[in-house]
Design goal:
- It is built from 3 helices and 11 strands, in the order αββββββαββββαβ.
- The protein is α+β, with helices and mostly antiparallel strands.
- The chain has an 8-stranded antiparallel β-barrel.
- Strand 9 and strand 10 form a beta hairpin.
- It is elongated, with a radius of gyration of 20 Å.
């Protein structure tokens, strides 16, 4: 009898957990109101770029943002640098190697409340088959059926094997600043 009660209790917990996950809403990125940009130092000043295509699987409850699930897949070849000549270099085999590695993945692993609409985000970034953790401050504001998340972090390009060979390695800063502003709306 005791085993039956334990099994029933375990089943109820599993059902309750499954129900709470199902209730978390899906959100879609609003591309025209969202940006993913990067900036890196060079001897002639900072160079900037913008990714123009990405998809997102975003699920969160505005009443409990720390339960958020965010997966963003960026088309690496959609990077547009501030100088058109640099766009093809950035996509080439010495840098992003978009022919072999067409996607950059961002996976939120944890969102810790830091007071008000501020959070500390923990995520994994995958580029060129290498995944590295990042932790960064983020702001999340939601109002009804819309939400806006902003944040930024530094990546060591060499940790992903980007621009580590040839003359570029000494000319381009190792730290790349990535800034993200994602506008979202509920789906359905």
């Amino acid at each position: 009898m005791r085993l039956v009660l334990i099994a029933l209790l375990f089943g109820a917990v599993c059902l309750a957990t499954g129900a709470s996950r199902a209730e978390v809403e899906r959100w879609a990125v609003v591309p025209g109101e969202s940006l993913i940009t990067m900036r890196v130092g060079t001897p002639v000043g900072a160079r900037t770029g913008r990714f123009t295509r990405w998809t997102g699987d975003i699920r969160f409850d505005p009443a409990a943002p720390e339960t958020a699930h965010v997966a963003i897949d960026v088309e690496a070849g959609s990077l547009r640098m501030d100088d058109a000549r640099l766009t093809s270099t950035a996509a080439g085999s010495g840098f992003l190697d978009t022919g072999r590695y067409p996607r950059i993945a961002f996976r939120l692993t944890r969102l810790e409340p830091a007071g008000g609409d501020r959070f500390t985000a923990h995520a994994g970034i995958t580029m060129k088959g290498v995944t590295r953790p990042v932790t960064f401050p983020a702001t999340l504001r939601s109002a009804g059926r819309t939400a806006q998340m902003t944040g930024g972090f530094l990546l060591d390009r060499a940790a992903f094997g980007i621009g580590t060979r040839g003359p570029w390695n000494g000319l381009i800063g190792r730290q790349v600043r990535v800034d993200v502003s994602l506008a979202t709306r509920t789906v359905g």
